[in-house]
Design brief:
The chain is built from five helices and seven strands, in the order E-H-H-E-E-E-H-E-H-E-E-H. The chain is α+β, with helices and mostly antiparallel strands and about 180 residues long. The protein has one domain: Aminopeptidase (3-Layer(aba) Sandwich), CATH 3.40.630.30. The protein has a seven-stranded mixed sheet with strand order 1-2-3-4-5-7-6, sandwiched between helices. Strand 4, helix 3 and strand 5 form a beta-alpha-beta unit. The protein is globular. The model has no long low-confidence stretch (mean pLDDT about 90).
């Protein structure tokens, strides 16, 4: 799999990524297309694309956080026909390699925290990718489901926090900038 990142996606890549994004996330579980477009216009997001044989197998919408120096993976999707074959784990590994090469300390995500088999499967996926789930569960006022932060630091030297309340604050600030 080959990774490309664009801070202002070209039209062809963006349309392919949007198709995959819509396939993976129901309308009520994703940011509106106009918000995503504004995030790229403001240059606060990156489109990560994982391609094999020219086809986009995976996509992620990410944002670089300055403090802490983490790459937030806001959305990550793998084509349905490619799931369960290791494509997602390979894609996350490529994103991690890119982030580390840019001097970032790790990766950050927020995962649904409701106790359901689907959510537990997602959390297990992230744990297989090296992420640690935090204890704190956050309830946003604008979405019905609770979330928890999960983080993966590249160096085990204790520089980064695993305090979920602090990490959710950083994620929330990214969301605020997204919707401004």
């Amino acid at each position: 799999m080959k990774l490309t990142l664009q801070d202002k996606p070209d039209d062809a890549s963006w349309q392919e990524a949007l198709s995959l994004y819509r396939e993976a996330f129901p309308a009520e579980g994703r940011k509106p297309d106009a918000i995503l477009a504004r995030m790229f216009d403001k240059r606060i997001s990156l489109l990560a694309a994982g391609r094999e044989e020219g086809a986009m197998k995976a996509m992620a919408i990410c944002g670089v956080l300055d403090k802490p120096k983490l790459l937030l993976i806001d959305y990550l999707a793998v084509r349905e026909r490619d799931r369960g074959k290791g494509a997602g784990k390979r894609f996350v590994s490529l994103i991690a390699d890119w982030a580390k090469s840019r001097g970032l300390d790790g990766l950050l995500i927020e995962a649904e925290a409701e106790d359901t088999p689907e959510n537990e499967a997602r959390i297990r996926f992230w744990e297989k990718c090296g992420f640690v789930r935090t204890e704190y569960v956050h309830q946003y006022i604008w979405v019905p489901e609770p979330y928890r932060a999960m983080v993966r630091y590249f160096e085990p030297d204790g520089r980064g926090t695993t305090d979920g309340t602090v990490l959710i604050q950083h994620i929330s600030e990214f969301h605020r900038r997204s919707f401004r």
